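Here is my example:
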Amino acid sequence: MKLFIASDIHGSAYWCRKMLYAFEKSGAEKLVLLGDILYHGPRNDLPRDYAPKQVIQLLNPLKDRILCVRGNCDTEVDQMVLEFPLLADYGFIHADGCTMYLTHGHKFSPSSPPPLSKGSYLLCGHTHIPMIKDCDDFTYVNCGSVAIPKENSAHSYVLFDGGKFELMSLE
């Protein structure tokens, strides 16, 4: 199963369009969103083309292809306008022999992981810093941020295909 994994759109219509173009081009079956979809958050500057209503219009037609977990900037109000479930704090995917625990990263992280079976993958966003890191019992996969990358990282996402994770840039 091919998955396109992204996080932290933060209401940027510009970067959401770029992400969706890359998603369609990738041939991935599912778009996995790890939170912070519409709101930019009080700690962040407004991202390029901040337009949450446009992001809603871009994502809702893909509701049957999206699997999403809640970020620290996502609320019940967001769920009222998005046509795919948004409010789960975590989720699981088992594909190509890999067990993936999906969460935003503000509650669970490499330093504070959920109960994971050995060999699992912890998929997060939240830090806006892309990385894939072996943590002995599990592998930490952070897709970075679609709209507001930090620490000089690229606007990024992760592709999962054939049991492998690959960091990708939208630039």
Observations:
- Strands lie at 3-6, 30-33, 66-68, 90-95, 98-103, 120-124, 131-134, 138-142, 156-161, 164-169.
- The first helix runs from residue 13 to 26.
- The chain has one domain: 3-169.
- Helices lie at 13-26, 52-59, 76-81.
